[in-house]
Design brief:
Strand content of chain A: 15-25%
Structural class of chain B: mainly alpha
Order of helices and strands of chain B: HHHHEEEHHHHHHHHHH
Radius of gyration of chain B: 21 Å
Shape of chain B: globular
Helix content of chain A: 25-40%
Number of helices of chain B: 14
Shape of chain A: elongated
Largest sheet of chain B: 3 strands, antiparallel
Helix content of chain B: 55-70%
CATH topology of the largest domain in chain A: Beta-lactamase
Radius of gyration of chain A: 36 Å
Distance between the termini of chain B: 14 Å
Oligomer: heterodimer
Number of strands of chain B: 3
Strand content of chain B: under 5%
CATH superfamily of the largest domain in chain A: DD-peptidase/beta-lactamase superfamily
Largest sheet of chain A: 7 strands, mixed
CATH class of the largest domain in chain A: Alpha Beta
CATH architecture of the largest domain in chain A: 3-Layer(aba) Sandwich
Number of domains of chain A: 2
Chain lengths: 616, 365
């Protein structure tokens, strides 16, 4: 054992102890400063990162608002749809998984691969949808094999449900996945890729009311992304309930009355402008869009020559035919060129200059006054009177009655029709207006175009004494608590300023059309309910010769059949307009549909089958 | 020959510091592993057993006069070196490294024993020289061979962390023993060159760790994951911490190796800056206390022994803390008294036993 007596007092060694202690202290101060930096200065940033680590936000879809008819009958609702999706962060071998899923879902592998690739736009914890709205049996299949399908999960989403199938599909419109373009637009700021939005119809126009506020579930996950517990749930707020002015029974009855025919029909409450029914035929099945339309189905709809996607009631423009005689009569009475007693001898045709204009009735109507001219729809009476009134006064009256401009319905894409006059002709064709064109215009042929909705508005204006009302479809919008968010009040577009005596003369004629034996709509009369109306035929191609038998004319060349009416005649409540494309005669094709509408509206017995009758 | 003065001079504060730190560590392990399967013996319980055994070991070590070791130093060194060689030849391989000798009931890790033995061997050498004048290059040849042989063998296992600790202990003791200025400068140049050359001797995963340390964000899901998650855990603790058992980074397993190398991150997350600072002070106190023991040792061998143990504890603490708070690259060095593991606990308590030993005999000549 060595005795080192001199060492402990050595100043050199003492110094080394101090240096060693100070060095240790210095390095610990370094650690201290680093901890200060991490835990004090950068604490907020690291706290945010640790929150991000452990929390995931899972959106909960909000049920879209329902659409009900004026009496609260459900027209568009939601039902639960099952979606099969894959959580990317839990899928180990996508190729293998997709191949297995293609088998289970009975889908093309290429389709699944495309959907999988599209999911890259989503955040990692957001499931990538592989199949939407699968049947219960497929769902059970997938659930059964869930152990061998890591990352596959099922979600329940609300999707649109249409209790009445195709009925009123054009009004509702349909939903589709939001496009990248829409995502960039201001009204869709709160939306996310993969959301569904209204693409047209009421679904689009009232998107901001129908779309609810999606909820959100904040969950805590561990390092594997496994859900451990729910931290907070923000329940979704369902969309608002939209109450329409539509009368469900009337809508269904109108659609049924059309059968397979193409065309459109509109029913308005003449006192308010409420749309009671709006039909466009042929229709389409909106549930195709609710479950996700396939490319082939979409192409078929787009290329169907009958154009089922178009809402003919406001986008179809037809020459009004003899219905326009209502306008001509009012213009003639106001200008003084005709009175109720003005008589014309109809020989079946009228020659002006070197052109001959025919009446629809071969031998003519003989001596005809105003009432008979309307009742039997004598063309020659209107040729004679019309050329004296002149096109500009006829056109002005048409505009006062609301023709030539969109009616202002809530739906987008409404057409304005066409009311020609001398100035228009000059601008459009750089040509003067010919007298023959006035004759043609007097009976609603030629350049004149109207939509079925405009014709219904015209008839409503006649029925209510001359007030042009804006037609509307949405009566009321309420939230879930029943609080009214919006309520539509009747809105006057303009006053036609019609002389009551002129109106009376016109309405007597329109009543005769239906209720007197030689009237063109006599066969569609309702004994218990006298109503007033006017038939019309709009030429698809100009025919030089007298008509062949209808059956011999090809479908596409047959005339359109039109009819407008209001009821009851004495104290009108409802006005309708019906267009049957290529239906040939207003009296046989269109008037029975109007009659069926009145039967439904006034809850009357349907009529016995009618015999054939030929008339304008 | 039992001396009553040994009881009188027993270093109770040092033992208390060590046990207190170990108990905090056990509470921390309880939190870090609370989500683990209850089927096997809980980690914190095992650590309690190791601590109990360690205290007994330290007490046992402290009561045999350390001065006997001065004769045994080189024999112990030779035996441990043989064990290290045996590891290379017949060692047990686990997770890509060959570090253990399978003794049937126990896996012996000779590299851990070497940490203590190198301290004894160098203390023997430097105490034997009995000079404070400063060592020249020639004088240092033998200590560096003593140091280099085990370091190379450990590096070969490969176990970079332990090899570095052995080297750091040796260099620190040499510095303390005193090196001439010219020699020191030459050594510094040599070390720089050696580091450059050593780069090529490193395994790929070791190079990767160093690269990742320099820029962890370059590979957030791969090699950089450990460092990033650990920094998030420490930083998100803030001033007061998230509370015992409430650290989201640790409880939800975002923090890897949270019961071993990254145990401190769990503590820092749950106890915040207050807790980390307290723990830092405890460790500093232990190190300074060790240097104090060295200063008051009865002889030069005791001084070197105590100083070597202090250096061992110091480097473990600094490398581990530096690693988990992103100041140093990830090298697998446990935090004494805090990281779970019997080997680490035994090595630390052996060291503590030596400190107690030297301390209680400070007046015995």
């Amino acid at each position: 054992m060595a005795l080192n007596t001199g060492w402990s007092g050595s100043p050199a060694l003492k110094k080394r102890f101090i240096i060693a202690s100070l060095a240790a202290l210095a390095i610990f101060v370094l650690l201290f400063l680093r901890l200060w930096y991490l835990q004090i200065i950068r604490a907020d940033a690291y706290q945010a990162l640790s929150e991000k680590n452990r929390t995931r936000y899972i959106p909960i879809a909000a049920p879209r608002g329902s659409i009900v008819d004026r009496d609260g009958h459900m027209l568009v609702d939601n039902r639960p749809a099952f979606r099969i999706a894959a959580l990317r962060q839990e899928v180990e071998d996508p190729e293998k998984l997709l191949a297995r899923m293609a088998e289970l879902l009975d889908l093309d592998l290429a389709i699944l691969q495309k959907r999988w690739a599209a999911g890259r736009r989503f955040p990692r914890y957001r499931p990538v949808p592989l199949a939407d709205d699968v049947s219960r049996s497929v769902l059970e299949q997938v659930m059964e094999h869930s152990v061998e399908l890591p990352g596959i999960l099922t979600e329940v989403r609300p999707v649109r449900f249409y209790p009445y199938g195709e009925s009123a599909a054009h009004l509702f419109g349909y939903l589709g996945e939001i496009t990248e373009e829409e995502l960039r637009a201001a009204p869709y700021r709160a939306y996310h890729a993969g959301d569904f939005v209204g693409k047209n119809g009421l679904e689009k126009v009232f998107e901001q009311y129908l779309n609810g506020i999606p909820g959100e579930r904040r969950v805590e996950v561990d390092v594997q992304g496994k859900k451990l517990r729910i931290l907070k749930t923000q329940e979704p707020v369902p969309g608002n309930r939209v109450t329409l002015t539509i009368n469900r029974d009337l809508q269904l009855a109108t659609e049924a009355a059309f059968g397979d025919q193409a065309g459109a029909a509109v029913a308005l409450d003449v006192r308010t402008g409420e749309v009671l029914a709006m039909v466009s035929k042929p229709g389409y099945d909106p549930s195709l869009f609710a479950r996700g339309i396939t490319g082939q189905e979409w192409v078929e709809l787009l290329h169907n020559p009958l154009d089922p996607l178009q809402n003919r009631a406001l986008k179809g423009q037809y020459p009004p035919g003899s219905i326009f005689k209502i306008v001509t009569v009012l213009a003639a009475l106001e200008s003084g060129q005709a009175t109720a007693r003005t008589k014309v001898n109809c020989q079946g045709e009228l020659t002006v200059g070197n052109r001959t204009f025919r009446c629809w009735k071969k031998g003519g109507h003989g001596i005809t006054d105003l009432k008979k001219a309307l009742q039997e729809s004598c063309d020659v009476w209107f040729y004679e009177v019309g050329q004296q009134v002149g096109i500009d006064r006829i056109a002005a009256m048409a505009r006062r009655l609301g023709l030539g401009t969109p009616t202002g319905l809530e739906l987008t894409g409404e057409r304005q029709g066409l009311i020609p006059d001398q100035q228009w002709k000059q601008q459009k064709f750089n040509d003067r207006w010919y007298r023959g064109e006035t004759l043609i215009a007097s009976i609603g042929q030629g350049y004149i175009l109207t939509t079925p909705l405009q014709l219904a508005t015209l008839m409503a204006t006649v029925a209510n004494g001359g007030t042009v009302l804006r037609p509307y479809l949405v009566k009321r919008i309420e939230d879930m608590a029943g609080k009214v968010r919006q309520e539509t009040k009747p809105q006057v577009v303009q006053q036609a300023h019609l002389d009551q005596s002129h109106l009376d003369v016109l309405r007597r004629g329109l009543e005769a059309v239906v209720n007197e034996p030689r009237g063109t709509a006599w066969l569609s009369r309702i004994k218990e309910l006298p109503f007033a109306g006017k038939t019309g035929t709009s030429q698809v191609v100009h025919q030089r010769k007298r008509r062949k038998r209808d059956a011999e004319i090809p479908y596409r060349l047959r005339d359109h059949a039109l009819f407008t009416a209001y009821a009851p005649a004495a104290n009108p409540e409802i006005a309708v307009a019906v267009v049957v494309e290529h239906g040939s005669h207003g009296s046989t094709a269109a008037a029975p549909i109007a009659r069926a509408m009145f039967d439904s509206y006034f809850k009357l017995q349907p009529p016995p089958a009618n015999g054939a009758f030929e008339g304008d | 020959m039992f001396d009553r003065r040994l009881i009188t001079h027993f270093d109770w504060p040092l033992l208390l510091l060590v046990v207190l730190t170990a108990l905090i560590g056990i509470a921390n392990l309880y939190s870090a592993t609370s989500s683990w399967s209850p089927l096997s013996t809980p980690v914190y319980l095992k650590q309690i057993y190791w601590l109990g055994g360690g205290i007994l070991l330290a007490a046992g070590v402290s009561f045999i006069d350390y001065r006997h070791l001065q004769h045994l130093g080189f024999i112990l060194y030779g035996l441990t070196l043989l064990l290290l060689l045996a590891v290379l030849l017949v060692g047990k391989t686990s997770m890509g490294a060959t570090r253990w000798l399978d003794l049937g009931f126990f896996n012996l890790q000779p590299s851990e024993i070497m940490k203590i033995v190198i301290i004894i061997a160098l203390a023997c050498y430097f105490a034997g020289q009995d000079t404070l004048a400063g060592y020249s290059f020639g004088d240092l040849l033998l200590p560096f061979v003593l140091l280099g042989l085990p370091a190379l063998l450990i590096m070969k296992q490969p176990d970079l962390g332990t090899a570095l600790i052995v080297l750091f202990i040796g260099f620190t003791m040499s510095l303390f023993a005193g090196i001439r200025r010219g020699t020191l400068a030459a050594l510094a140049v040599l070390a720089a060159g050696g580091a450059g050359g050593g780069w090529f001797l490193l395994h790929d995963y070791q190079k990767q760790r160093i690269l990742t340390f320099l820029a962890p964000e370059r590979d957030p899901l791969g090699a950089g994951y450990h460092i990033i998650q650990s920094k998030i855990a420490v930083g998100s603790g803030g001033f007061f911490g998230k509370g015992f058992m409430k650290g989201t980074q640790s409880q939800l397993s975002f923090l890897p190796e949270r019961h071993t190398d990254f145990a401190f991150s769990v503590f820092a997350e749950e106890w915040g800056f207050c807790g980390s600072l307290t723990l830092l002070c405890l460790y500093l106190l232990i190190v300074i206390w060790g240097i104090y023991v060295a200063r008051n040792a009865a002889d030069l061998f005791g001084t070197f022994l105590a100083f070597g143990v202090s250096a061992m504890l110091f480097w473990h603490i600094v490398i581990n803390l530096g690693m988990v708070i992103g100041l140093l690259p990830v090298v697998g060095v446990p935090l004494p008294l805090f990281s779970y593991g019997g080997t680490s606990m035994i090595t630390t308590m052996l060291g503590a036993g030596l400190l107690l030993n030297v301390s209680m005999r400070r007046f015995t000549f």
